[in-house]
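Before a colleague's protein record goes any further, I have to sign it off. I want your independent view on whether this chain really folds as the tokens say. The record follows directly below this note.
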Amino acid sequence: MEWISQTAEELAAALRAGAVTSVDLTDEAIARIERDDKAINAICVPDFDRARAAARGADQALARGEDRPLLGIPVTVKESYNMAGLPTTWGMPQHRDFVPAEDAVQVSRLKAAGAVVLGKTNVPLGLQDIQTFNEIHGTTNNPWDHDRTSGGSSGGSAAALAAGFGALSIGSDLAGSLRTPAHFCGVYAHKPTLGLAPTRGMVAPPARALPTEHDLAVVGPMARSARDLTLLLDVMAGPDPLTSGVAYQLTLPPPRHQRLGDFRVLVLDDHPFIPTGSAVRAGVNRVADALVSSGARVERHSSLLPDLAEAATFYTQFLFSGFVARFPVDALEQLRTRAARLAADDRSLDAARLRAMVFSHHDWLEVNNRREFHRHGWRQVFSEFDAVVCPITPTPLFPHDHNPDLLARRIDIDGVEYPYFDQLVWAGVATMPGLPATAIPTGQSHEGLPVGVQLIGPMFEDRTPLRLAELLEQEIGGFQAPN
């Protein structure tokens, strides 16, 4: 039998029972990568020799009776994480030879938990795209359709999981970078509450790996089952030992409910800035129907919901002011000139992007103050509901588009074109206020392409959307391997 397609939980049980060895699992994963990855290009930095050595060590530990959560399980790591002895480039040609001296904190936690790291997965240039391609490592194709994107920026990790290249992966999320690839590849991902999992060592080269606090950005788990997300999140979560970990330990609250029928869920499928495509809307409705059939309380509207248009504008401003923080001065002057030409009443997302690129510190603080009102609004939402179900992007995976002018790209939604970056508004629903969100597969479109949705939960109650994901997996099915 093929072991590597099973879940991490199943593999852990088989390893403990002696039904398989870590060396067997690792060799099987490597063989599959060597057979299939030429067409997919998910594993950009293989580390097979060290993986085989780690597998031998895991088998010895298992024989001694050790019981660590990921002991002997083959995994992959997003290229943007530092791993001692391997290049970290973020897809930037000028840093193709940068090799960090130590592991990122999350890589250290994977290894301490007993995981066998097979290698690193591909990313877009600077992690700043909804697709995955760069000059150093080329393009990652979607295992479902090689002419389409696997998403970004954790597109290599999602493609690796869908193709069976390891049981788990770790990625990161600023603009849906965990959730969008999961949606496009038919796998699971969890964007943790902001600050729940430390990011030290997930840093653009050649910067030092310091324990800085990021705005919007998180690191999180990816898997082929909802229960595996919880397994990996428990390894990743908890304060950085260099900072708040000196004083605090993490205890996440349990999920609000154990039965699907006990959940109170707000379902959203309309956004004021962009329509939802028919395939994604059908996925949202499939989840809603399963909830209703189970006896859950399902609502389609709530007066408590913060204004989605204002939230999308704020999210766009945070995102793009951060993107240009290190722009050369002459480039900023050109942006200021363009922003000054905007009409005062232009409230489009294109205008919000351009204005944000030339934000002053005062401008940023004003928007940040408004964010706190939205966070309070979400607290009120979650006093009445346990989770929110909504799209991740308006469409399933789309064809590769490598137009270097990202602002000129367009996204096709049921035959009508919209600005490429407008599709980020759904990712921003959870990201802007820092909420946890779990991406789950909901089946396939009429074209046979995977479709997912996100389950947004209350801040620091990550176990609630994760439990809901587990229950929905049982109800509507979960990961399906590409044909």
